[in-house]
Each structure stands twice: as C-alpha cells, then as structure tokens.
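Our consortium's second objective concerns turning raw sequence data into structural hypotheses that experimental partners can test. To show how far this objective has progressed, the report includes one record in full. It was chosen at random from the queue rather than selected for favorable results. The single chain below, 215 residues long, was entered without modification.
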Amino acid sequence: MEKVKRYVIFMVGIFINSLGVSLITKANLGTSPISSIPYVLSLNFPFSPGNFTIFFSLLLILLQLLILRNNFKPEHLLQVPVSIVFGYFIDLCMALFKDVQPGWYITKILCLLAGCFILGIGVYMEVLADVVMLPGEAFVRAVVFRWKTEFGITKIAFDITMAVSAGVLSFCYEKRLYGVREGTIVAAVLVGFTARFIGRQQVIRRSTYPKEKKK
C-alpha cells in the first residue's frame, strides 16, 4: 500500500511538472533547460513539444544503457512509460494554457515565476516519492556513477549543455535565438531552489511538530 501511495505521489508530481513546464514556455522568455531542445525542435518540425520530449527522453535512456552497460538494471526501463506519460502531460497542459498569452514583459515575468514555483513543487514530489527518476536526472546519475563526478556540478554542466545545444539549434533553424532566453537561466536556478526550500520546510515542520506516541 505504501508503494502504491508513492507511485501516486510521483504521478501527481509528473503532472505538476508538466504544468510548470507549460507555464514557463507560455511566458515566452525561454523554457527550462531540460525542455529547451524538445521545444526548439517542435518549432521547426511537425511534432509537438510533448512528442519531442518523449523522443529526447528515449535517447537519454539509450545513452544511460551505453554508459552503465551491465549496471543498467531492469527497473531503469520504468523510465520509458514515465517519459511517455510526461510527454503527453506536457501536450495536455499546453492545450489547457492555450489562451495564456502574456503580452507585457511584467506579465511574462509573473508567468515565468509561477511556472518555476509549480515546477519546483513537482520536482520535490518526485524526490519525495523516491520510485523512478525522469531520464534527465537519471542520465546525470549514470554519468556520476560511471565517472565518479559530483552530482550537483554534473547537473549544472548537463543543464548548460542542454541550453547551449538548444541555442545552436535555434540559430540553425531560426537564424536567431529562440526558446533559450533569460527565463532559461531563471528556471535553472529557481526550480532547484524552490524544491530544496519546500524540502527544508517539511523537515522543519516534522521536527517542530513530532507525532504523538501511541499509548
């Protein structure tokens, strides 16, 4: 029963993630680093951001297999259905927010901040569930395992690589920087900060209000 509860929390977290990604994208100030490549590609090919998220996630899973080799465990394949669900959730949320078109820069900033906060909540719920990792984080974990690097530094390097790659693709197809802007940097910093802040608050709350002992 406990495991079912954790999977429910994880799936809710995935949906909240999708809401956050969609709002950040709708702000039109650049999307989150992990979503930047799928988003830029969706602007130039007849596939949705959710479709390209699935394709990109499957590529990351394949790269994990090549990196980990014999250490790639069967449970890692759970990332495949999770990636498909996440991709369709993104398309669903983009449809839900189809009328959200902020015009003024201040409204774009507010939309961006709201998306970052929501995405941070989703990331925290994923960590709290502790059942499956999304391919982006799982790829970073595979690199850390294989080359004994530090997770935080590797994650930053991964995010920078995603953003730079999306920028290069943008220039190749659009002849200008599109999909990677100041919002990408804000999302890279603020989402992780929000997730860590919520996690610390939960720890403080549990230590301040301990459960009553059963008589």
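The partners drew two points from this record. The chain has a mean pLDDT of 88. The chain is about 75% helix and 0% strand. Both points have been shared with the crystallography group to help prioritize constructs.
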